[in-house]
Amino acid sequence: MAEVFTRKRGKFWQYRFYGATINGKRQEICKGGFRTKKEAQLAGNKALTEYTQAGRHFVASEISVADYFDEWLKLRSVELKQTTLSGYQKRTRNYILPVIGKYKLKAVTASNLQALINDLFNQGFSRNTLTSIKGILTNAFGYAVEPLHYIQLSPMIGVRLPSVRATPPVPQRKKSGTQLPHNSGKN
Predict the structure, then answer these.
(1) What is the C-alpha separation between 187 and 182, in angstroms, rounded?
(2) How far is CA 75 from CA 12, 68, 70, 71, 173, in A?
(3) Quick one: angle between helices 82-91 and 127-145, nearest 10?
(4) Is the separation of the CB atoms in 114 and 160 below 8 Å?
């Protein structure tokens, strides 16, 4: 692992570290003009981090979860069937955003998302609905990591559905949809 060195040159401090060898020669990366040794060390550490990450400096996004999900759904609208997109929008609007929409995207943790899934389970939502919501969350936060680079790691890593053997404290919700009249085939 590379190490950052500091030294005083005249009235100012500089940092230096060694990069990759090119044609068998060590490449020194340095910059000077810092008033204190501490400033030079901090700048050197930052430069080394950027160097080891191939020039990419990561800054977590300040976007809210609600704004991100709006953006994500717009980006995905060209890839998804209209019925799938409508289902995503409905579940996002009804179950996800009321709970975590107000937070910054970078502030959401796995424990927040696990609590969301557990609360829906405790309200009696079906396993099918929970699986769908978990899939939406996994997909959305994964997309925020790659290709958008809004966050470094998906908070959905480690979030689990309740066990199949677990029973919610309330009975499972039943859909009270209208049934179509039975057509006996006579017209």
Answers:
(1) 12
(2) 49, 10, 9, 6, 32
(3) 100
(4) yes
Q: Terminal CA-to-CA distance of the chain, rounded, Å?
A: 81
Instruction: Reply yes or no: is the peptide bond before residue 147 cis, omega within 30 of 0.
Output: yes
Q: Which residues pair with 9 in a beta bridge?
A: 12
Q: What is the pLDDT of residue 176?
A: 58
The span from the CA of 45 to the CA of 15, in Å, is 9
Rounded average pLDDT over 153-165: 92
CB 18 within 8 A of CB 1: no
Task: Report the pLDDT value the prediction gives residue 164, as an integer from 0 to 100.
Answer: 87
Q: Indicate the length of the chain as a whole number.
A: 187
**Backbone angles phi and psi of 34, in degrees to 5:** -90, 140
* Beta-carbon contacts of residue 75 (< 8 Å; ≥ 6 apart): 143
Over range 162-184, report the average pLDDT: 70
Q: Compute how many other C-beta atoms are within 10 angstroms of the C-beta atom of residue 154.
A: 21
Contact assessment for residue 81 and residue 124, using Cβ atoms and an 8 Å cutoff: no
Residues 37-81 have pLDDT tens digits of 999 999 988 888 777 766 555 556 788 999 999 999 998 889 889
Model confidence band, residue 98 (pLDDT cutoffs 50, 70, 90): very high
Task: State the CB neighbour count (10 A cutoff) for residue 133.
Answer: 22
